[in-house]
Amino acid sequence: MNGPNHVAIIMDGNGRWAQERGLKRSEGHKEGAKTLEKLAIHAKELGIKVLSVFAFSTDNFKRSKEEVDYLMNLCITYFNEKLSKVIDNNVKIIFSGRKENLREDVLEAMKNVTEKTKNNTACILNICFNYGGQEEIVDATKKVFKDLKEGKLKEEDLNKENFYQYMYQNLPPIDFLIRTGKEHRLSGFMLYQATYAELYFVDTYFPDFLEKNLDEALEYYSTRDRRFGSVKTD
Ligand code: IPE
Ligand code: IPE
Ligand code: MG
Fold it and tell me: Active site includes 12?
């Protein structure tokens, strides 16, 4: 099978997973974090080169202070401790998103884990945190303007391929995009990179989306005929 190079997951449904069990929403986030650890290792074992995950959107700041605080604290413990197994698996961790509005201790934890894993080579885990796809395109456009103004870029040289260099991370396009948790929408996730991504929506809430579920999703991917606008000639 010609597997996907870049897989992306909109990790949705943590809150409902918890609520349906009579638990607090935060319990769902905690369980979701454990799931991500398992999936990242599994993705690496499967030879996936890049795994991008939507962990916190710019719009998620609209949630209660209690939930936002919980998620910020979870990410610190998570980046500092829980990712050690992922790191031992030679996974490089990077982040996409805006730094504005993030607490100093959160930024510090992100910096530490980026630094610790910068020489890892098996797989890239791109964690989209305080991320919005429209924001990313706007921020990229501002960088383009800056380069034009400083003479580092000529207008005629900008194209859809090198525009990637202006994104938060210069990653290949997404081949396969999974959204767990019943909703059929992108909620702003990697709009530019998802242009020709195969889409997979699954009802399973993220905490329950384990290795075998990823295998099943990849099985579906292997049946797709990706034409990129062309017509099959054979
Ligand atoms: C996804 O789960 C995680 C984040 C957005 C932080 P949700 O928290 O959106 O869970 P539901 O969709 O309310 O169930
Ligand atoms: C998208 O989920 C963001 C993340 C998974 C981090 P949301 O739960 O925030 O999206 P909507 O509100 O259902 O569109
Ligand atoms: Mg949700």
Answer: yes
Which atom, in ligand 2's list, is nearest to the CA of 11? 5
CATH number, domain of 120, equals: 3.40.1180.10
0.85 cut: is pTM over it? Answer: yes
What would the pLDDT profile of 97-136 be if each residue is shown by its tens digit? 999 999 999 999 999 999 999 999 999 999 999 999 999 9
The answer to whether residue 227 sits within a structural domain is: no
Is 63 part of any domain? Answer: yes
- Separation CA 223–CA 171 (nearest Å): 24
229: left (phi over 0), alpha (psi -120 to 50) or beta: left
- Ion ligand 3 neighbours (CB, 5 A) are 12
Q: What is the pLDDT of residues 72-89, one digit of tens each?
A: 999 999 888 877 888 889
Q: Give the range of the structural domain holding residue 106, as residue numbers without chain letter.
A: 6-132+172-221
